[in-house]
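User: Please go through the entry that follows and flag anything odd:
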Amino acid sequence: MNIPTSDGKVLFDIIVKKGYTRALEIGTSTGHSAIWIAWALSKTGGRLTTIEIDEDRHKKAVDNFKKAGVDSLIDAQLADAHKLVPQLEGLYDFIFIDADKEWYSQYLKWIYPKLKPGGCFTAHNAGNSYLTGIPEFLKDLKSFTDLETSIVRSSGSGISVSYKVK
């Protein structure tokens, strides 16, 4: 249920290259992607908020953050993203979603206003058009005329990478 190392490197490289400092992740699982994001944020002086609904995965992720030495960079929320995401305040410059695929389009709609100009919205499994919700999500991405989107296919799952044009 975690991203492969190649995908972690993609996220890391985007954050470091662009100097992003305020990141959000929806779908922590056991923390592999959050650790990659936090490693990058350690280079830019940033912090990550990550959201996981499953208590066992959340506990494992928090333990993994401590083992990786990045726990001070991560605000790990045990919460239902369907309820928490609409309530989030402030702007983010990097967002990664890897949660319930049928909700990707809704997450995009909620998060888009909170994405800074020049910021990056990424989503895992965007290359898997057979997954429920992914075709609709990709269609919805195209409807945002100020998002420049590409699909990174370095893994079989694919990552959509959308930059908000300034």
Remarks:
- The chain has a mean pLDDT of 95.
- The beta strands are 22-26, 47-52, 74-78, 92-97, 115-124, 147-152, 159-164.
- The two ends are 34 Å apart (CA to CA).
- The longest strand covers residues 115-124.
